[in-house]
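Blinded run. Sample ID left blank on purpose so nobody reads anything into the name before looking at the predicted structure. Input follows.
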Amino acid sequence: MADKLFTIPQSLNDIVTHYCPGCHHGIIHRLVAEVIDELNVQDKAIGVAPVGCSVLAYDYFNMDMVQASHGRAPAVATGIKRVHPDATVFTYQGDGDLAAIGCGEIVHVAVRGERITTIFVNNAIYGMTGGQMAPTTLVSQVTTTSPYGKNAEQAGMPIRMCEMLATIDGAKFIARVAVNNPGNMVKAKGAIKKAFEIQLSGGGFTMVEILATCPTNWGKSPVESNTWLEKNLIPYFPLGIFKTPEEVLK
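Blinded prediction complete.
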């Protein structure tokens, strides 16, 4: 009998997801679940998902999950962690959520050095609500609210959350990764695991930003979306570790 090489992580439910074909949320869910399994913290893990494409994450993760209002996941996670300091607490947020209505929340959770981990999925657009322009939308990128392309003079330049949060003392680990190919998936899992390990060791705020596709709202096929991400998102949002407990961004 052949060895079984592929199994579903214990921290994921064995169900079909609602995500669009080519969407990276499913990959990211699996990486987070694998890390939680490997760290053996499933019984202590509590996830917080706000409004957005992540809103049904509680159907997929096999652990305690809490839903928060749009942008307010960091505040909810703060309360949970302070009441249950031994819990492994994480938020799972999109860019329309974290970088827009929740920008103040994420900045101040980092300022306070809250011992939580944020998984930040950046696809440069509002996904669930109809493909509107987000704070991370690239200049000239077409969305439903910028049909002629984003105008920097009107809407500003795309915000780089990692670079900004890395300057805050309370943030202990800040990284940006992608999951558009197997090599990047391996690196992404490593960053996610490092973020959770720092939380478990008593460190401060940690965040992993993950560049992801949105084929439906980008109007591209899954293959085209991966190519567009590599050629457009990564050059503006460079991958790498921006801060670790041993380093301060200069």
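Unblinding after everyone has recorded impressions. The chain has a mean pLDDT of 93.
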